[in-house]
Amino acid sequence: MEAVRQPVCxxxxxxxxxxxxxxxxxxxxxxxxxxxxxxxxxxxFHLVFGLxxxxxxxxxxxxxEMHSGTAAVVLSKPVDRALFFLAKYAGVxxxxxxxxxxxxxxxxxxxxxxERFISNSTLLGYVTDWQTGKMLIGAPxxxxxxxxxxxxxxxxxxQSSAFFLLFGCLVVVLLVSGLFDQAGRWAxxxxxxxxxxxxxxxxxxxxxxxxxxxxxAFSTRLSIVPTMTLTGAFFVIGLLSDHWFGKLAAESAVxxxxxxxxxxxxxxxxxxxxxxxxxxxxxxxxxTAVYALAYTGAVLCLGVLSFRSAEIK
Length: 313
What we know:
This protein is an all-alpha fold. The chain is built from eleven helices and two strands, in the order ααααββααααααα.
């Protein structure tokens, strides 16, 4: 809840939704496949904004409490340090899941909004689902308005109310969009969404959870700024893992060690599988999930060991 109350998390989430919604409404080309740019852009926004949210939430949730004295008060009770550390990660995980749900729904709706050629008994030609696009753009503003009313009337936190209402508004837009066809006319209920995008969003979410574990482990020793810097460097190095360490892994034990230590973020980006109507194989999804679970578990173990001997003010 402390992370949700941070304005930066709300602003990043709302910006991600708005940019994802705007992309399909300003496109001039489709690169040979209807909805591809909107889909890939949505997944890219999900990853980029999620990196900032997961990294900031992870390091601020622990580092800030260690330096403000809150952690010392809690740990003065019969609360184990390992439990405290893992509870922080569990809270960040919930935040990442909520953000990812918002980003994934936005991507599904943006892909539906994108211009496409439709040929059936009622439609023939290129159609843009302006109605769904407008509802998607309006969702963050409605969430902010309702959160403002709740804050004024019941004195609830604006940031946390707006964050949860944003998710609720996106769910409503998703359900309401099924009442109309892609030309904005009443039609038999059908969501007209590409469910094959969901596994791509799941893989991005797994990447964010791995990054959150890395940021949380760093925050046991460092403040917010150095933690964010090192986490960002870790992410960049992981993007270049195949290029830098892939060849070395086949030539030396040191290369194999480095290749195993550095997380390979390319495993979590499978947008190319979705091209031309393709789907992400279940083997890839489960394999990446096991990789993320193993890597996250290892990082959290190191984080627990570091936190056990960390000095808490």
